[in-house]
Write a structure and sequence with these properties.
Oligomer: single chain
Radius of gyration: 20 Å
Distance between the termini: 30 Å
Helix content: 40-55%
Number of helices: 5
Strand order of the largest sheet: 3-2-1-4
Length: 216
């Protein structure tokens, strides 16, 4: 089933991330539009000159996608590049170290696109997330239930970088990037939560490793 991101309204609202189906469609449609453009500019006959355009496509397709779909975006861009730019007849071959390098660069572009998208949504959603968490925390402390199911804070798996980092969500909205435990605490307090217990599964869910896991 294709999951289309639900649009939200109000100040600071952030869109949901794309599913794998939407990422595939984005790369397919992007490449379909890119190939005629490369042909018109003459770069279709110069694969090295056309490659940065596919890196940009990998980044663009990952802007609103989950980090786990970055390899998918990179692989699809490589398939279109190898089949329709390098060979131009839809024929795929693997040219050893050259294609390993291309796949690595495409993956790096996709990861950068994902990180840029998360950072932008975190900045846009911070005021709304802070108000939502403050309301949710007040209801929980009063013994009631909030509208958000599960722990209020979710820390994603480690993403490659220098240094590596993890995305942090509060009540389903991205609030920032953490590079260590102190960043997680800082982000929680920044959006209005005073009592932070990183060992409490009712407060935080660690994805892809616990609180001491900060390397890919």
């Amino acid at each position: 089933m294709i999951t289309v991101p639900r649009c939200t309204t109000g100040a600071g609202a952030a869109p949901r991330t794309y599913s794998a189906h939407v990422v595939c469609a984005s790369v397919f449609l992007g490449s379909a539009g890119l190939l005629p453009l490369l042909g018109a500019t003459g770069e279709l006959h110069h694969p090295a000159a056309a490659f940065p355009a596919y890196c940009a496509l990998a980044a663009a397709a990952s802007l609103r996608a989950s980090a786990r779909f970055a390899p998918l975006s990179a692989l699809l861009c490589w398939l279109f590049y190898d089949g329709f730019v390098v060979h131009q007849q839809g024929e795929l071959t693997f040219d050893g170290s050259a294609d390993v390098r291309r796949l690595g660069l495409l993956l790096a572009a996709a990861v950068l696109g994902t990180a840029a998208g998360w950072a932008g949504r975190a900045l846009a959603a911070r005021p709304a997330a802070g108000a939502s968490l403050a309301r949710g925390a007040g209801v929980r402390h009063a013994g009631g239930m909030s509208d958000h199911a599960g722990p209020p804070m979710v820390v994603s798996g480690v993403m490659p970088g220098d240094p590596p980092f993890r995305m942090v969500e509060v009540d389903g909205e991205p609030v920032g990037i953490a590079r260590d435990l102190s960043d997680v605490v800082r982000l929680a307090r920044q959006v209005g939560l005073k009592h932070v217990d990183l060992d409490d599964p009712a407060f935080v869910r660690w994805v892809g490793g616990g609180k001491y896991h900060w390397n890919p």
